[in-house]
Design goal:
The chain is of the alpha/beta class. The protein is built from ten helices and 13 strands.
Length: about 325
């Protein structure tokens, strides 16, 4: 089983200087690639000069996360792709536990390790934590992280568990499955595209797992931080698009209506907090969703399925109104 560790880069020399050494040091059994999204800094010159074993893939444009990886991975033939953010520090032996799961389980098509916070390594990190799920309305949450509540890592999630989505910060996926689906949906551009991919993978019969014996540390927000309204825009828009594309049946429109109402409350909260750019990001997200709706109605004809995608009806209700702040509290 051959493995490609692929780091997507865009003007990220500082991050490569900080984190690429650990990837090279602890990925001896894999080929490490830096896929460059048409950077204008000297990050690629830095990699070429300092890491001769790292292979460089040059994309012709900055197509975001989705197109960037689609273009890069189309050129590779390894059995397992590991899509690794440039702001991730890996640890010794991080690959072996997950690759062992792929060897044992023929149905396994995607997986993720334990994601801890690089800045506070006792806690889980927002993007992925100990495995991802979504509620009935498409809001994502994780073991170890629900909304802004991050749990401490007390080895409570050192298990192997089926999950609904594996984080794009450190996503293991079989090349066969990735190419069978023609990769990420590029209309997402960035954020939530891994949830859509994992949804489609499972609709076709694959399984996705969290493997707690593997640990990485993620800075998070290095490209678009939580304070960036563009991240708010993509998160609100793309969860709506994922519902339209993947939920079978006419009841999806009732789900969409409920989501729009909840999003309205979120926008009002931003307004009351004085976060005007985030308020307008929610508005822009909805208008962009309406513009893309005809395109996603066509995709829906191919991808909508009855796959059981949620464990709880409303994570918003449980978290904000019933004070269920941690994954074990959900019942």
């Amino acid at each position: 089983m051959t493995t490609a560790v692929v780091i997507l880069n865009w003007n990220g020399k500082t991050l490569l200087e900080q984190f690429l050494p650990s990837v090279v040091r602890y990925s001896q059994d894999a080929t490490v690639y830096v896929a460059d999204n048409a950077s204008t800094d000297d990050s690629i010159a830095y990699v070429s000069a300092n890491f001769p074993t790292v292979q460089i893939i040059r994309n012709t444009e900055n197509g975001g996360y989705a197109k960037g990886y689609n273009d890069a991975l189309a050129q590779l033939s390894e059995d397992i792709f590991v899509l690794l953010n440039s702001d991730v520090e890996v640890t010794e032996n991080w690959l072996k536990p997950i690759l062992s799961e792929f060897k044992k389980d023929d149905q396994l098509v995607a997986a993720q390790p334990k994601i801890l916070d690089y800045k506070d390594q006792s806690k889980f990190e927002y993007a992925g934590a100990a495995g991802g799920f979504i509620d009935k309305l498409g809001y994502p949450y994780c073991r170890g992280r629900i909304f802004s509540t991050l749990e401490e890592d007390n080895r409570q999630y050192n298990d192997v568990l089926p999950i609904f989505w594996a984080t794009g910060a450190c996503l293991f996926v079989t090349s066969h499955a990735f190419k069978q689906l023609k990769g990420f949906d590029e209309d997402f551009f960035a954020h939530q595209e891994e949830i859509d991919l994992c949804w489609r993978l499972q609709s076709l019969g694959g399984s996705i797992k969290y493997v707690g014996a593997s640990t990485v540390y993620h800075v998070g927000g290095a490209t678009l931080g939580a304070a960036n309204p563009q991240k708010t825009f993509y998160n609100f828009r793309n969860t709506l698009l994922a519902l339209v594309k993947n939920v079978q049946g006419s009841h999806v429109w009732w789900l969409i209506f409920q989501r729009l109402v909840w999003d309205g409350f979120a926008g009002l909260q931003f307004l009351l907090q004085g976060k005007f750019t985030h308020f307008f990001a929610v508005l822009r997200a909805h208008f962009s969703f309406y513009r893309l709706l005809p395109t996603f109605l066509q995709k829906r004809k191919k991808w909508a399925s009855s796959f059981p995608y949620y464990n709880v009806s409303s994570i918003v209700w449980l978290y904000f109104f019933r004070s269920k702040k941690k994954y074990p509290d959900l019942g």
